[in-house]
Amino acid sequence: MRVVIRPVPAPYRVTATVVVLVGLSAAAPFLYRTGPVGYAALLVPLGLLLALAWLVRLGQWLLAARAQPWPARLTVHLAQGAQAAQRDRAAEKAAGDLDVTPAGYAVWAVLRRGSAPQLHQRVVWERWLRELSGEHRVLVRRRAGVAVLDVDGRGRVWPASFTLRRRPWGVVLTPLGGTPAVNHMSWWRLLAVLVMVTALLSGPAVGRGDHLDAVWAAGYVVVLALGVGQWFGLMPPGGRSRTRPAAGKVPAPRAAPAKAHRTARAAGTPKTRKR
Asked: Which residues cross the membrane (predicted)?
């Protein structure tokens, strides 16, 4: 029997993250009341700041969801650092790879409405966004500097940034074409980073035998990483494998242009002689 896990909407995920962050932050003074304060306590101000920012953003979501809708066309883009994008293009060109799979780490929505300027907005990740290629009809509810998007036949997309009338700085936006999106970071690499950070912050607590403090530090790191990822609209690692050209179908080199004839004799036109 196959178990299907239904995706949790973004408002529930964000609300749960904020509640857990506030609860763990409130428990920090009681855990560190005795003994030296570990390095993990340095994360508490960052966690409280993130929880406060999310509370403000949730208020913006509530106001925008009650605004009057207007129709628009949506194209989902993936954001990638400019240097990383240039490095990938150079590597693919050197290898002769015809890879057209859009790759990136964050999801941006580009909205078009007639002759009006385009709107750009980073959005919170939803599972079905990976397959949302091409243009789609949406209803836009914009208020308080953000826009909530109702995608026709899919669901609701929630904002992770303010709505911009310009392209975001420092990133390259790649629209989703006919292939699903992919994130180059693997789950193993992400897990390795979390394990290293957790070991660094909870190591002192384990050394002095405070296992409860160590568990608190590990949980705080995981919840904080989840909250930061949702704030920046990060997509989960992985995705479908990147498409490669079939074996034996290597693109043929472009033919060099023919050289122009420089003389009339070479072109075959006879010359007249003087008598």
From this structure: 12-32, 38-56, 187-208, 214-234
Helix (H) or strand (E) holding 231: helix 211-231
> Which residues touch 37 (CB under 8 Å, ≥6 apart)?
none
- Are 27 and 216 in contact by the 8 Å Cβ rule? The answer is yes
Distance CA 107, CA 151 (A): 15
Tokens 């400019």, residue? Answer: 82
User: If we measure between CA atoms, which residue out of 206, 261, 244, 8 comes closest to residue 125?
Assistant: 8
The pair phi, psi for residue 174, each rounded to 5°, is -115, 120
What number of other Cβ atoms are within 10 A of residue 252's Cβ? 6
For the record, the structure tokens of 125 come out as 């990740």
> What global pTM score does this model have?
0.73
Q: What is the dihedral of CA 148, 152, 154, 159, to 10 degrees?
A: -10
Q: Give the model's confidence band at 275: pLDDT under 50 very low, under 70 low, under 90 confident, else very high.
A: very low
- Look up residue 240 and give its two tokens: 């479908």
Q: Which of 107, 91, 109 is nearest to 99 (CA)?
A: 91
- CA-closest candidate to residue 188, choices 116, 238, 241: 238
- The token pair at 18 is 């904020």
Task: Out of 91-100, 122-131, 248-257, 262-271, give the one with best mean pLDDT.
Answer: 122-131
Classified as helix, coil or strand, 53 is helix
Instruction: Give me the amino acid identity at 191.
Output: L
- Burial class of 45 by CB neighbour count within 10 A (0 to 12, 13 to 18, 19+): exposed
* C-alpha torsion sign, points 208, 211, 213, 219: positive
DSSP helix/strand/coil, 70: strand
